[in-house]
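Hi team,

Below is the intake form for Aspartyl/glutamyl-tRNA(Asn/Gln) amidotransferase subunit B from Tessaracoccus antarcticus. Please confirm the fields before the structure is written into the shared record.

FORM ID: S-0412
PROTEIN: Aspartyl/glutamyl-tRNA(Asn/Gln) amidotransferase subunit B
ORGANISM: Tessaracoccus antarcticus
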Amino acid sequence: MTEILDYDDVLESFDPAIGLEVHVELSTASKMFCGCSTTFGAEPNSQTCPVCLGLPGSLPVVNAKAVESAIRIGLALNCQIAPWGRFARKNYFYPDMTKNFQTSQYDEPIAHDGWVDLEVEGEMFRIEVERAHMEEDAGKLTHVGTSGRIHGAEYSLLDYNRAGTPLIEIVTRPILGTGAKAPQVAKAYVSHLRDLMRALKVSDVRMEHGSLRCDANISLAHKGAQELGIRTETKNVNSLRSVERAITFEMRRQGALLLDGGRVKQETRHFDEATGTTRSGRSKEEAQDYRYFAEPDLVPIAPSAEWIEELRATLPEQPVARRKRLATEWDADELAMRDIVAVGAMDMIEETVAAGAPPQAARKWWVGELARRANEGGVELEELPITPRDVAEVCALVVSGELNDKLARQVFEGVLAGEGSAREVVDARGLAIVSDDGALKEAVDKAIAANPDVAARIRDGKHQAIGALIGQVMKAMRGQADAGRVRELVLEELG
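The structure came back. Fields below:
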């Protein structure tokens, strides 16, 4: 069993340094160096050609839309755009990389020296972006066996559909001074990139599909040390929640190892979603191990200054500015917006409001009930099987008086269970509020007869006691009575 240290004890002895490498899969129609489709979910190995399979004699051609997207990403990250640069071959063997090298960029990235400012729990952090470079994705390995991992697998299946898909890798410089907030800063940064890529419309950034993945580097240095500690790199973390959990675990694991006199091994590690732990992968290569050299089959990329400025003019509203605008539109204070950002509900609320829901109601359901269900299921909010239009429909039913909050929760339960739209769930489960005076009066009479002492107190003018009778009626009618109308009927009946 891996020894871990209490988080507070880690911070007493060590200063963390984090570094994040985020891979963004671009949503171009075709691959980086060939015309094969990038559509997700196609039959395995149905979207391949001699170029993306690396067959002898095939020649790559650069995807112009991918270059455009890379420049727009670099500009949005406040980067300098290189006026000239080449692709390179990154040589290593992976069974899901058909050519035995990856076409990437090494010493001449398309974008470099940028920055992102983030606010995390009321504190500002500047994340320095070292580079954002273009490359191609690898294929996909599926290990068949009891564990789903290569160790112990009976055999492995290869799908090259993803091989050659355009990627942008965004690499930070070491992020220092985060202290106890290191995991939260990492999560906030990846969340910011996801929002930014979505605003730029360059990627669907669906982490569950792998179109946005994070490699999280973490090291610990003894308090007061001048040099950074030895780092580990946790590969392909594919949810915001997991980024935070992986860094937290690695800090606790490394802290226990160092305090026990051990030495951190520079290696890649893999995050286990089920246990919240990391496990050893392979030793971490250095740049020289990849034997980079210039790609001889591709011409250099040389975007003109005029084109760069044209692309700069297409940049959308930055996520920070958007949050400020929405806070004003939704009449939400800083604490409310912080909660919205924390659960990743910004897009869902905006779409729900656009579908006709009042902002306060949309916020309440996404940040409360639905965020709770996402947390219980260990998934991101947007992975829940419910749409902003569904939530807006529930909000409309509450506003109209057809549902109360208790019944609305049951409707959400039904929609999440796949029972249909909000209206279909209401009809199928018979959840609409009963406002028929005949049925309500019958329930009120029974409640008064069963509670004569309470009725007497109300007749004596002690109207605060009416809540007990309303509760009895609501219970009898399974929460489907109109509480306001019940109150009126009780007062009418008791004079």
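SUMMARY LINE: The first helix runs from residue 7 to 13.

Thanks, M.
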